[in-house]
């Protein structure tokens, strides 16, 4: 499901016209052009005649520097350089600070069907805002069968086969005051370099399916504080049936991970068996994760303590 | 890994009751089931997952079954969908 992602200029306008204060100045016929990179480019050198590294898939942002440079060119030279740039299928040009382009640019936008937009925001602010938007919009995405919970502020992804009791465990956690992000299916986005953000598909958001009860709405039943729109994923717990032959981690010294969209997330394998209250164990796992993040590893500290005691004793023996 | 493409033929599309029939059937088997529509894939044993496929009349679904009883389950799932989940239209 890692199809290459893109965004058309039309979609950008539909979603961001207000926030980025956008206006179309010319090239309306090219609104179906695609942006496929979250990085923006400033075509200063291209205007001076150096076209290498000019990327079609990026947004070309022109501020007052670029426009005042164009002003220094003769009309013929401007026409020529813009014609040359437009040989590359540029996704669009955006002028910031409410600036207007020279007349040659308007006609070239229409001729080559390359949209020329204007934003009334300042360049630095505009670039920041659009980068955030594009990075999120063009982020790699996948969806996973599982439950995402916010436990003490940690994003915990519960995985495991269907009917292992993920939803029941999540409900237990909600009753204990933790927050549901999504049940059954979690959409995960990668915000480079290594942040995974999980959220629920819109249709089933805040809903949960429990065998015997059916579909319930957690937000209605438990209130707005029991749910969260999205959450960074920081820990994964795989619930599985207790297998006699499988050895489970008794010490907590080994750390395993699960790779999602190229990011390694700490993983705990959690056997399910009668008498094991999963919600409480997972809650403690989240607490332990908090401890680890603050630099304290219970298992390692304990291991060190035992080693120190053994060392002391063996010295005493040989003196 | 048997897989097959089916089209939704009932008027209401893949609604909650229909989805529950798929889940109930799939849960009787040990095989893993995934149902794909476009670039969205759902676990065939997850009711809410299937609903996120958002599949109206005419949608094309790819059912992919993996496991020891895969072929039998796939045949039954296709039959269920082709028979419009027992609905009249």
Classify the helix fraction of chain B into a percent range. Answer: 25-40%
State the CATH superfamily name of chain B. HPr-like
Biggest chain pair contact, residues each? Answer: A-B, 16 and 15 residues
Tally of individual domains of chain B:
1
CATH topology (level 3) name of chain B: Histidine-containing Protein, Chain: A
Largest β-sheet summary of chain A: 6 strands, mixed
Helical region count of chain B?
3
Features:
heterodimer, A: 319 residues, alpha/beta, Udp-n-acetylmuramoylalanyl-d-glutamate--2,6- Diaminopimelate Ligase, Chain: A, domain 1, Rossmann fold, 2 domains, 6-stranded mixed β-sheet, 5-stranded mixed β-sheet, 10 helices, elongated, B: 89 residues, alpha+beta, Histidine-containing Protein, Chain: A, 4-stranded antiparallel β-sheet, globular
Structure description:
The complex is a heterodimer of chains A (319) and B (89). The relative contact order of chain A is 0.11. Helix content of chain A is 34%, strand content 28%. In chain A, the strands form 5 sheets. A 6-stranded mixed beta sheet of chain A has the order 11-9-10-17-19-18. With 319 residues, chain A is an alpha/beta fold. The mean pLDDT of chain A is 91. In chain A, helix 7 packs across helix 9 (278-293). Chain A folds into 2 domains: 7-137, HprK N-terminal domain-like (Udp-n-acetylmuramoylalanyl-d-glutamate--2,6- Diaminopimelate Ligase, Chain: A, domain 1); 140-303, P-loop containing nucleotide triphosphate hydrolases (Rossmann fold, 3-Layer(aba) Sandwich). By secondary structure, chain B is an alpha+beta fold. Chain B has one domain: 2-Layer Sandwich (Histidine-containing Protein, Chain: A), CATH 3.30.1340.10. In chain B, helix 1 packs antiparallel against helix 3. Chain B is globular and about 35 Å long. The mean pLDDT of chain B is 92. Classes of the chains: A alpha/beta (319), B alpha+beta (89). Chain A binds chain B through residues 1, 3, 143, 145, 162-163, 183-185, 201, 203-204, 207-209, 215, and chain B through 16, 27, 39-43, 45-49, 51-52, 54.
């Amino acid at each position: 499901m890692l199809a290459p992602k893109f965004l058309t200029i039309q979609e950008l306008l539909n979603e961001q016209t207000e926030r980025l204060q956008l206006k179309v100045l010319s090239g309306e016929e090219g609104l179906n052009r695609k942006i496929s990179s979250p990085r923006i480019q400033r075509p200063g050198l291209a205007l001076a005649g150096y076209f290498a590294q000019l990327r079609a898939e990026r947004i070309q942002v022109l501020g007052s520097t670029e426009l005042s440079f164009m002003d220094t060119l003769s009309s013929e030279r401007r026409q020529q350089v813009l014609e040359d740039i437009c040989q590359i299928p540029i996704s669009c040009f955006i002028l910031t600070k409410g600036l207007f382009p020279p007349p040659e640019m308007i006609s070239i936008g229409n001729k080559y069907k390359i949209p020329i937009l204007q934003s009334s925001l300042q360049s630095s602010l505009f670039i920041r805002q659009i980068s955030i938007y594009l990075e999120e919009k063009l982020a790699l995405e996948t969806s996973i069968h599982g439950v995402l919970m916010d436990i003490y502020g940690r994003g915990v992804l519960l995985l495991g086969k269907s009917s292992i009791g993920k939803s029941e465990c999540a409900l237990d956690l909600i009753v204990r005051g933790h927050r549901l992000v999504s049940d059954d299916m979690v959409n995960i986005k990668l915000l480079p370099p290594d942040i995974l953000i999980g959220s629920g598909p819109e249709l089933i958001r805040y809903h949960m399916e429990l065998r015997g009860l059916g579909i319930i709405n957690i937000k209605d039943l438990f209130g707005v504080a029991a749910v969260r729109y999205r959450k960074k994923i920081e820990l994964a717990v795989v619930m599985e049936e207790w297998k006699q032959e499988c050895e489970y981690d008794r010490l907590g010294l080994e750390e395993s991970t699960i790779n999602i969209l190229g990011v390694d997330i700490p993983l705990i394998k959690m056997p399910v068996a009668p008498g094991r209250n999963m919600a409480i164990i997972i809650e403690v796992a989240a607490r332990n994760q908090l401890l680890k993040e603050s630099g304290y590893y219970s298992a390692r500290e304990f291991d060190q303590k035992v080693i120190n005691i053994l060392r002391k004793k063996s010295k005493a023996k040989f003196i | 890994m048997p897989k097959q493409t089916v089209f939704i033929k009932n008027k209401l599309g893949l609604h909650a009751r229909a989805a529950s029939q798929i889940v109930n059937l799939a849960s009787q088997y040990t095989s893993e089931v995934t149902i794909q529509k476009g670039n969205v894939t759902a676990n065939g044993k997850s009711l809410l997952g299937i609903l996120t496929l958002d599949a109206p009349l005419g949608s094309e679904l790819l059912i992919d079954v993996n496991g020891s009883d895969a072929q039998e389950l796939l045949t039954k799932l296709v039959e269920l969908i082709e028979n419009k989940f027992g609905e009249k239209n």
